[in-house]
Amino acid sequence: MAYYKYHVFFCTNRREGGQPCCARLGGQEMRDYAKQRCKALGLTGPGGVRINSAGCLDRCGEGPVLVVYPEGVWYSYVDQEDIDEIIDSHLRGGTPVTRLVI
Question: Burial, 3: exposed, middle or buried (Cβ in 10 Å; 0-12, 13-18, 19+)?
Fold first, then answer.
C-alpha cells in the first residue's frame, strides 16, 4: 500500500533568459494554495494527499504544470478555480479533470 493516496508535484522551476517557465506563471503560488486548501479540507497526511514542489518537469512550454501520482496524470492550469477543480474532482473524487489534462 502506498503511503499517500495521491502525490502531487507542482513545477516551480525558474528558467533564465526569458524562457517559458512555471515559476513565472504562478507555479509556487498555486502550489502553496493547493497545499493550504488540501489541508483545510482534511485531505493531507498518510493515506491522503501530499503536495510538493518539483524542479523542472521539462514541460514548461505547456505550463504551468503539475502531475498527480500514482496515475501520472499531467495537468496545465490557469488559476485557483482550475486548482479547485483538480482537488475536488481528482483528489477528492478520483476522477481526472479531462479539460486540463496535457
Answer: exposed
What is the value of pTM for the model shown? 0.95
48 vs 54: CA distance, rounded Å: 19
**Domain 6-100 class, CATH top level:** alpha beta
Cell numbers given for 33: 494554495
The tens-digit pLDDT sequence of the chain (102 residues) is 689 999 999 999 998 888 889 999 999 999 999 999 999 999 999 999 999 999 999 998 898 999 999 999 999 999 999 999 999 999 999 999 999 999
Contact between 64 and 39 under an 8 Å Cβ cutoff? The reply is: no
- Boundaries of every domain in the chain: 6-100
β-sheet with 73-76: strand ranges across: 49-54, 6-11, 65-69, 73-76
Q: Quote the cell numbers at residue 1.
A: 500500500
